[in-house]
Amino acid sequence: MKTCDCLIVGGGSAALACALSLYQQGIHDVVIVERDNTLGGVLNQCIHNGFGLQVFKAELTGPQYAQRYIDLLKRISITVYSQATVLSLDETKTAMILSKKEGYIKLQAKAVVMASGCRERSRGSISIPGDRCCGIMSAGTAQHYLNLDGYLPGKDVFILGSGDIGLIMARRMTLEGAAVHGVAEIMPYSNGLKRNIVQCLEDFNIPLYLSTTVIKTIGRNRLEKIVLAKVDENLKPIAGSEWEVECDCLLLSVGLIPELRLFDDLPIIQDPATKSARVNESYETNLPGFFVCGNALHVHDLVDFVSREAEQCGRFVARYLKNQLHEGAAVDCIALNNITALVPQCLRVENINQEVEFTFRVRRPMKNCELVIVKNGEELRRIRKRIVLPAEMETVRLSAKELKGLTSLSFEMRECE
Questions:
Q1: pTM passes above 0.70
Q2: Structural domains in the chain plus CATH codes
Q3: Residues 6+ apart with CB under 8 A from 361
């Protein structure tokens, strides 16, 4: 059996940043397990620019961003198993790994970090009825085909869902000569960042149909057309509103789910809002020594945010390995009116040296509103917001001084009076 101080599952931006942070904190016996043959994760297929403005103060493509971290890791000694998969993980932090080069590896770790990213929701998860023909795939799969394999997935394209990957692929497919006939979004507002709506749809005259969904796919061997319909306030198709669009490719951008299947057999508490593990201020689950960061914890807007969170997680993992974390009871952080996906979900105030950053999303768009934070039954802070959108992650930092004597903490988004 092999041993290590920290096992990191995944090889994308969160894993790379966390590994580097651990090394900087004096934790050198680190193992990264990545199922692909190269590090970088999904960044390798994101050839558009816009990455790295915060972390590296430069505008980079996805592969360039990943390479910056890979180059930094090459200067230090960290074990990387590529083309390898963690088959199982138990409560003792013992992992069974299948490596293409080394076969089966049994690894005993002192700490485990899940930096495994997220996966796309599929056609099956949203139950689109119709023919099971080819030409229907997730936007990320199409991105892989086009950017890494050089294969154009279709020539007449429609996109269901206004997530950022779908918006980016609308532009990408257009630039490659495909006709993108539109994007349908079941909600009455877009789920993508405003800049992507402008740069990927409006700049290319691609229509966005809100409160609209695909109710049927039609095709024999390959997709031939789809049937769309408007939806009511309950997101149910409205009879008589149907229309058809001829296309040979339907891309799905209908949400991302944190990839934590290795936790299925472990007694780790899940958070329904994030669909991931419930974590404290240290990014640690209820099972000591098991940490989660990056998109495996909650879906981020920017990769720069992923890296910074992973760096912070690495610092806490180092403190855990050095027995510097207080293991006492945690205080729950409660999400109230129009607040969802709050992270962290609980706090051990003794572990906060300076401040803690909270992230959350809103359930619906609001204008002229206030974030109200209540501590121990009394208002701690009130922050005015001109506009908040479900597509954009919100952040707020509370200092250790503000949290002193904490017994309860809640967050609420209210309409301004």
A1: yes
A2: 1-118+256-325 (3.50.50.60), 122-254 (3.50.50.60), 328-417 (2.60.40)
A3: 339, 340, 341, 390, 392, 393, 394
